[in-house]
Every structure is written in structure tokens, then in C-alpha cells.
Amino acid sequence: MKSTVGNLESTSVHAGREDLRDLGVHVPSIDLSTTYPIDDLPLATQSLDALAEGAAEAINPIYSRLNNPTVRRFETALAQLEGADDAVAFSSGMAVLTACFLAARADGGHVVAVRPLYGGTDHLLTSGLLSFDVTFTEVDGIAAACRSDTSLVVLETPANPTLVLVDIEEAVRQAGTVPVLVDSTFATPVLQRPLEHGASLVVHSATKFLGGHGDIMGGVVATNGEWARRLRQVRILTGAVLYPQAGYMLHRGLQTLPVRVERGQATARLLATRLADHPAMKSVLYPGLAAGDPQGLVGRQMKGPGSLISFEVEGGYEVAVRIAKEVRMLTPAVSLGSVDSLIQHPAGLTHRLVDPEVRLRHGITDGLLRISVGLEAPEDLCADLHRAIARSLSDQNEVSTLRLRLA
User: Fold this and answer.
1) C-alpha to C-alpha distances, 217 to 224, 228, 231, 286, 296, nearest whole angstrom
2) Which CATH architecture has domain 8-255?
């Protein structure tokens, strides 16, 4: 169901809740049923057949692995935010990606992947588990990499963890008739809607910004036409379903998504600017800095640079590890998109299973740290980072000059 509301802030509040007034309630209920009574067997059989063929809904849900009304509300809402016909939710972001690859498998055994990608995605493609032949390339190499049996092109923008932006329209142009999957987890539909730029599938690890509080795990893919039917069939067969309470909480999280994304982004802009001026930095990676958006995609493809920052410190691994240990307000933990700010070491954690040579080739060095900026006061985050950086440098006489400006 494509959005009929022009303003995304309004859509985020009301999507998937259009029937609540008729129901006489203010918030949707949570349907925790695992099975549903069958009073009319022929009707139930028809429902089962429809769901098994990938229908979004049926008169009788039959069994929660086939269909759940609470999860369906979340899917409907997310589809509206992405401007998609439909969305299909899964138990995690990796379950979504696996389902997309399995759904594409019928069209061919070759995938083109644009690096850098999230470490889990990269590892899934290199593991051989899905029996795909994979060609890794840059955006300008997609056309040359595509073959007659290529069933999917996969990319991530902004990329994890280097925040490199990929021109979706250029990727789609090069892919030709091959569907393009965009992992848009870092951007969310608040900042980027890949389907409007020609992508066939847009994936989110809903665990991150969509949930927004670090207490829900899930994944979702927004798409049009036949893809949704295929993906629901995969979900039924693999059982990677989203738990109803998680569906409810993700649906609730969408209501505050624009506010959270915009607030985190405002703080990230300030923090990235301060870090870029810091003498201890070898590099600061952020699309809101001039060097972070050489193609001018912010404003054209993305509405803003987002709230993720990566930076490489002088002193490499030892100093980076110390910084992550010394922070007090920032939480040293993987994941992102929560109300609290998180800091993590990609080479040692999220991208640990990626080949070391590949990591280095794409700028994922041992001195790189990634911050997911939350909703804390900017001056408090600046102060926390300053203190952690200062304590992590060996020359204490130099420390007094390495201060993040708060004014």
C-alpha cells in the first residue's frame, strides 16, 4: 500500500492505524495467537492455499507462521513510509537478506555485490551457504559484472562502516534488467527512499532505527509486485517470522522515527565537525562533510547525512581500543540507531569475519571506530569523547591541545 499522505511525519504517526477509530480504540491490540479457530473448513482451506501462494492476508490467518495481524500492521505502515506496494517482515535483518537471496535464486545462481557491506552480509555471501556465485565490485563495475544468470545486485548506502554513499540510480542503470537490492538501514525512509530511484527491494535491519530503543530484533523489506509474494513464501517455509510483540513495538517505533533521526543527525553534524578539526584524527568519515559526499548525493538522493560517524585515530588499534574503553556516556557496543549513543570497533567486531585484505582495501582499518549518535545533549557527547581521546593518548603534554570545541 503506497503512502497517500504527503508529509512523512504525519504518515509515520498514522500509517497502519487507519482503522482504529472504527474499532473504537486508540492503539492497536497485540494478537499473540499461534493458531486460529476453524469453523468453516472450506473457507480455511481457501485461506491456507492463498497464504501458501504468498498472499499478504486471508480471511482466516490459520497459523501465526503464515500470517499475523499485528505484524501485518507494521508491514503496511513501513510500506507506506517507503512508498512501496508492500513490505514483508522477518525475525532479523539477516533473515531478511537471506530470504531475498533465496527468493532470487530461482532467477539465477549469480549475485553482484558492491562493497563495502555490513560484515554479516559480506560473510553470508562469501560463506557458500546459499550456493551463489558472487562477484564483488565497485558501482562502476556492475554492468561488466552482470551475467545472464545474475539474479540480484546488492548494495548498501550509506555503507557500513565507512559511510560511503552509492548512487542508486547509477547502480540501477548499470544493472539493467537485474533487480537491485538496497540496504538502507543507516538512512531509514526518513532520509532515503531507494524505490524512488529505481531499486526493486529496500531492506532494513529493523533492530536499529525503526525500533530505536535497542530492545527489539527484526528485519523488513519493502518492495513492489511479485517480490513480496515470493518473500512471504520463503518466510513460511523457513519460519523466520517476526514475533507479534516485536511487530507491535516496531510499529510503535515508526511514530517517533522522524524526530529521532533528525535529532541524532543534528548532533552528528556538530560532532563530525568537531572531530574533523581534532589533531588526533587521521580521518573522519561522514556524508555531511565535504569529503564525505564527493558525488553530491546528500540533497539529491538523501535528505540528510544521517547520524552515523566513523573516524580513524592516530595511534591505530591500541588508541582506538582505549577510546572505546574510556567512554562513559557512549556505550561500547555493536548495533546502531538507538536513543543512546553507541561506539564500536568494526575491524574487531561487525566486520571481523570479513577477509582482512578486503577490510583494508575498503578503509576498515584497525584504528577505525564507528559512532551511532543518539539523543543525548551534544555538549555531553563532545565532552565524553574529548575525555576518552585525551586519556587514550600517550603524550599527556600534548593532550591539553587536543580538545573538542564546544562553542
Assistant:
1) 24, 21, 19, 26, 33
2) 3-Layer(aba) Sandwich (3.40)
